[in-house]
Every structure is written in structure tokens, then in C-alpha cells.
Amino acid sequence: MMERIIARTEACYVKAEQFFQRTFARPDIHLDLRGQRAGVAYLDRNLLRFNGQMYRENSAHFLQQTVAHEVAHLIAHQLYGHRIRPHGREWQALMTGLFELPADRCHNYAVARRRSTQYLYRCACPDHMPFTARRHALVKKGNRYLCRRCGDALHFTGKSQQV
Length: 163
Known about the structure:
One of its GO terms (biological process) is response to stress. It comes from Halopseudomonas pachastrellae. Residues 7-157 form the SprT-like domain. InterPro entries: SprT-like_domain (IPR006640). Helices cover 40% and strands 20% of the residues. By secondary structure, it is α+β, with helices and mostly antiparallel strands. It has two domains: 2-98, 2-Layer Sandwich (Zincin-like), CATH 3.30.2010; 117-162, no CATH class. The strands form two sheets. The chain has a three-stranded mixed β-sheet. Strands 5-4-6 form a three-stranded antiparallel β-sheet. β2 and β3 form a beta hairpin. The longest helix has 22 residues, at 59-80.
């Protein structure tokens, strides 16, 4: 799996080097990204991270579009520096002019939402107030929260629900 991403990355760099008649430093590549993002380019670290799950589910399009998208960020940075916008005209020109691909900012891959737990809190109002696991942990550490409607302190009911 990683070999195909490395090969596609190299092909993008070779094309850029032929076009611009200069060399570009090759990035480190990791296939450890999770969540909603298909890929991320770390400009100052010359690093590309890709989402392995999205690659497995959309391999042909991912190799063609997503890898080129992230490589274009690194090349734009090496050519034009920090002062350009991430998806500005320099990046767009690389995508459409050099790689002959659409300059799409975002992917449209199906992303499964992770199930999470909500912790139910209560005040004088009739409705429960759901807290995230992070906010619930802060309450356990001593943070206090007040209801925006009635102003009373919110207290954990001892109940939670999966969403």
C-alpha cells in the first residue's frame, strides 16, 4: 500500500522537476492520519501524512488526486515560500497546469462518524444538557458549569448515552 503512495509522490516530483528545471527535496511520508482528513502537508517539516483508511476505500482516486494535492502544497511552499494562501492561485496553478487535475480543496470520500458518549447533566430547566467526554472529565477535575438559561449549576445525573 505504502509503495504505491511513494511511487505516486515520486511521479509528481519528477513532473515538477522537469517543468521547473530544478530539484525539490523529497518529503517523509506517513500513512498514520485518522479522522476526517485524507491528507496533510507539513510545510516546514517537509512531511506528508495520509489517511490509510480513506486510501483503502478510494485507492484509485486517492492516488491520483489526494497525493497530488498534498505534493502541490509542498512544491508551492518550496517555490513561493510562506506568504501564499494554502489553496491560493499558486497551488491551483500547480494542480491544474502542472498535474492537470481539478484544484479541489476538499475530498468527498465517505467518512464514518465515530460513535461517542454524551454525559447528561441537569439544572432547574426541564431538559438534560449533554456534555462531551472531555467536558465531563473537566467537571471531574473540579470545573463547574452554569446553565445559560436559568443560571443554576449543572450537575451530572449519573446517566450517559451513545450518539
